[in-house]
Structure formats: structure tokens, C-alpha cells
Amino acid sequence: EVGLPLLVHRRCQDPMFSISNAIAYDGQMVHAAGPDKAGQVATILGASAWFDVNSNATSKWSPEEGRVVMRLLRQLARTGIQNPDVYVISPFRVVAHEMRQLLRTEPELFRAYGVDERKWLDEHVGTIHTFQGKEAEAVIAVLGAPMNTQIGARRWASSTPNILNVMVSRAKSRLYVVGSHTTWSSVGHFAELARRVHMGKLP
Description:
The chain is α/β, with parallel strands linked by helices. It is built from ten helices and seven strands. The strands form two sheets. Strands 3-7-6-4-5 form a five-stranded parallel sheet. It has a two-stranded parallel sheet with strand order 1-2. The model is unreliable at 1-5 (pLDDT under 50).
């Protein structure tokens, strides 16, 4: 008899590994990433967490979620970290676009990071398609679509494992989720995200 070989995964720590294993690999992966050595971003922002943001957005973009992301990025800047190894990823193009626009209003952030603004935004903020095959120490996942009436958008994002799997598996060490826990935690594959990522308190 020939059995299915187990897949050995050497990149992501938990909770990213467990989420990916559950939603995309039917539990067949073996975790072999070794001990978690916290890098600069992890040391500053702490353990993986879900930052619950409930807002009355008129589109998939939630300005309140954007402000939370800015607080996290400013926290990195205040410590003097250079070119932080973090991606800001959303399931939705409009959210990624608006996040880039918000970041452009704060050029001092990029000066603190010691990076070129345009290059950093192109390489660090986008949808999953921007980051296929790439990895970073940490991912800030900006969910968007927080309203009850936006269930169609959330169902689209969660209907297959691909969006969530790519989003979380870009992170080697830490995952920070920014979005409405109430509206996302019971939708499709994102229920696994809610089970694995603990609620956090913003720094």
C-alpha cells in the first residue's frame, strides 16, 4: 500500500501553521519550523493577536481599522526600527488602496523607517496577490467589510481557503488581525482564524 506523504512545513510558527494546516491541508502537515526566535517586530508588538474593531463603514474600507494599523506601525517607528519586516495585507483591493493612501499622509513614518515611501508601500501593502511566494516576520491582516450588510463580501473572502491561507502563511513569526471579530469570526474559513488567534489589546 502507498500512503499519502505528510508535508513538512518549515516556515511558519503558530498560529499561522495551525490555521493553514486546518483550512488548506486537512491536517496533513508536520510542523518543523524549529523554535520561535522573536525578531524586532515581534519583540515590539508582542504575541500574535486579533485587534477587534467595530465600525460603521460605508464601504469595505474602515477608517477605524486603518487608524489601528497606523498605531501599530507608529509603535515600530518610535523604537527606531529600520525597514520593519512586516506586510499589511487585506482580502480587498479597495482596503489595500485606502491603506496606502492613509500611509501617504504620514511621510515622517517612512523617514523614521529609513525607507523610500513609494518602494515600501509597493512592497509591503497590498492584497494576497502582491505577496504570493513572499514572506515576512509579521503580517498585519486588515479584514475590512465590518458591517452586517457586507456579508456577501465576507463570504466571498472565506468561500475558499486560498485568501486566508496565503494571508496568514506570509507571516513567519507573528500575525496581527485588525477587524470586526463579531462579523468575521463565524464566516467560513475565518472561523478557524478566530479559534486560533487570541484577542489582543493595542499597545
